[in-house]
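Model it.
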Amino acid sequence: MRPILLQLGALPIRSYGLLIAVAFMVGIWIARRRATKNGYDPDIIIDLSVIVILVSIIGARLAYVFVRWEYYQHDIPGIFQIWEGGLAQYGGMVAGALVGLWFFRRRGIDMWAGADLVAPSLAMGVTIGRIGCFLNGCCYGKVCEHPWGVVFSESSIAGMRFPGVALHPTQLYEALLGLVVFFVLLAVDRRKPFEGFLLWLFVILLSVYRFFIEPLRYHESVSMAFRSGNVALSNNQVFGVALVLLSVGFMVYLWRRAAAGRGSVTAS
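Modeled.
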């Protein structure tokens, strides 16, 4: 729980920004290795990453600011202070995925094959990024009565809101599950039924585990999409359900496309 890892003179090295940078670098390294293994020029990943990093950060920040506009409309400079935290994972994922698919198609590469190259990198990015959230003290959970509850530093966002109180380390829950998804994708890659399968499997697994972690997270009122009695759904839960339905639809489409392609080859 160290929002500032190092202090180099007057320059603070913030844990959140550093871990986000590490997440991108590790993701690029993994994708380059997978590109080489699958017969693609690994340098194409570098070109892709330049665009995706910029667009995904912008998309994640805009999604975060959008649901908190009542606050940010009075603090316009605060919109640009992303080093303090405040990136909506789903916003960055959707923006990055769209521009990534466009990039592969523009380069003459099957966009679904390209998506599968980088899918494991996305899972690893979630893992490392959430560790950054943990060190920063953002994206924290509700009060935790279990032995693994964490008391965050009072210099962190969680510690300022809940000083001296043990909270669910929901960031670490997501980091661990992101790592599990990473290894699942690598295992499935050896026998995937069609191109694009890894991407949509990643989206489904991410959305499912986030759906069940969300009730343990602390949410401001603006982050809640629905509340009635004991039933409450966050914006992330609603969006996750929509992404699961979208993923299943694309999986059916891609499976039928692959089956039709195999049928035409057999007929010829």
